[in-house]
Design a protein that fits this description.
The structure is a homodimer. By secondary structure, chain A is an alpha/beta fold. Chain A folds into 2 domains: 8-105, 3-Layer(aba) Sandwich (Rossmann fold), CATH 3.40.50; 122-271, Rossmann fold (3-Layer(aba) Sandwich), CATH 3.40.50. Helices cover 44% and strands 14% of the residues of chain A. The first copy, chain A, has helices spanning 19-29, 48-63, 77-84, 95-105, 122-138, 162-173, 184-187, 210-220, 229-246, 258-271, and strands spanning 8-13, 37-42, 69-72, 89-92, 152-157, 177-182, 203-207, 250-252. The first copy, chain A, has a 4-stranded parallel sheet with strand order 2-1-3-4, with helices on both faces. Chain A has a 4-stranded parallel sheet with strand order 6-5-7-8, with helices on both faces. In chain A, strand 1 (8-13), helix 1 (19-29) and strand 2 form a beta-alpha-beta unit. Chain A is elongated and about 70 Å long. In chain A, 42% of the residues are buried. Chains A and B meet through helix 1, strand 2, helix 4, helix 5 and helix 6 of A and helix 1, strand 2, helix 4, helix 5 and helix 6 of B.
Amino acid sequence: MSGWGMPRPVFIVSDHTGLTAENIARALLTHFPGQPLRYLRRPFTSDAQAAQAVVSEVEALAASGERPLIFTTTTQPDVLEALQTAPAQVFDLLTENLRLLEGEFAEPPQLGAGGHHDMQDSEAYLSRMEALDFALATDDGIGDKQYGLSDVILVGVSRAGKTPTSLFLALQHGIRASNYPLAEDDFEREGLPAPLEQYRSKLFGLTIDPRRLHAIRTQRKPGSKYASIEQCEYEVRRASALFARLGLPVKDTTSASVEEIAAGVLALLRQSGRLEG
Amino acid sequence: MSGWGMPRPVFIVSDHTGLTAENIARALLTHFPGQPLRYLRRPFTSDAQAAQAVVSEVEALAASGERPLIFTTTTQPDVLEALQTAPAQVFDLLTENLRLLEGEFAEPPQLGAGGHHDMQDSEAYLSRMEALDFALATDDGIGDKQYGLSDVILVGVSRAGKTPTSLFLALQHGIRASNYPLAEDDFEREGLPAPLEQYRSKLFGLTIDPRRLHAIRTQRKPGSKYASIEQCEYEVRRASALFARLGLPVKDTTSASVEEIAAGVLALLRQSGRLEG
């Protein structure tokens, strides 16, 4: 039983990239926070031979006393059948739900590799890549003229989270997000920064705890005025006042991930009818 | 039965962002390609009251003859219980597998909202944000000195897919990816471009069908020499020859998504032992 105490092996087996399988596995395993785990990813396991290679790995680990887990999103009968012979608990993540859907739709699922292809819906894929080009071109206010083409304009002080959020919105959701970095000039004005005036309905404010901002900026430019706690407090206070005056929707990014900030932006776009669903 | 013929409503209900729930739903529904669907996302449904609001929506749609589906990753008993009262097939995506895991680990899962928090593992999150800064700083070869700090260096002609791939690797996987854009000078040399010489083991080549490259570049600079089919054919041919001469791992991006290209890079990093799992 040499395996006791070792992080338990978690195999992620997919006939494609394995991103979905790993997401589900992590969503499940996060509910057992005390368990030490190690992930072993086996993407593109798309035939019985590849599955058998995984089974052999699992057997070797089991023989040395480890207790592997297998999570798979494959829908190929021969791959599933092979995996079921491994000395491990197999989490077949799709099959049971496919059976339920077969009943709902009164038609059999189309099984086999390649069914879930990221580029299958290639119009959606192209719009993601276009949105990414867009976000890169307009990053940090260098593309004022493109505000008119934006789905959303993220407004906030430097390093409040605008760039990661806009890239994430583009890559994951095909949303065209621009940034407007608030700076000294903007705080001396009462109303909106001039380039934003006609796009008020697209604005989304990002705020952040000044101490967190201070830490982030210090990593970038240690000892600078830009990174000082006084400057950070001043900028965040003025930005918050501006957001309040304009009645902008605001998200605090201090302890939010890009996924969470993006979810807030998407919810806003949906509420205002600019995005379906 | 006014609902017949309408795209069928697919509710995505999560106590968090809903990304995992939507990924699973899409992985399942892609096996029924002929079914018209519309997605209705209800993230942050984290208590019985919020769940009841979703149930009311479902009831209204069902009353007008539609047949909604509900996909949920919630693990909160009160939310699940409420959803089960809706006139819709509910796909409870985690519960059954949590029960299996409870048996495997011989301990009960920690249920409730916030269990699956993107920033819970904040070291991993910070490394993703750092990798993103890194990718942005080194995009398109402007950061030669940072090649030493890179996990991988993507090499290819302009618009072969380097930038989206490096951003995706950073945002999703915390991988530090740099780019090296191959240009005229590089093709006149026999060996590696000078800045890359000492980092050969980190190189990953991206190639693309010249006609596809021509189409992409034409969108960007119509009628230019840069976009001409002759120039595209020349560059791709010379790049491929260079990759072959150096024995680099190469991925054809012509009909691959960033997810797929990234999976190829990750597989390489794992094979060479530079990345666990």
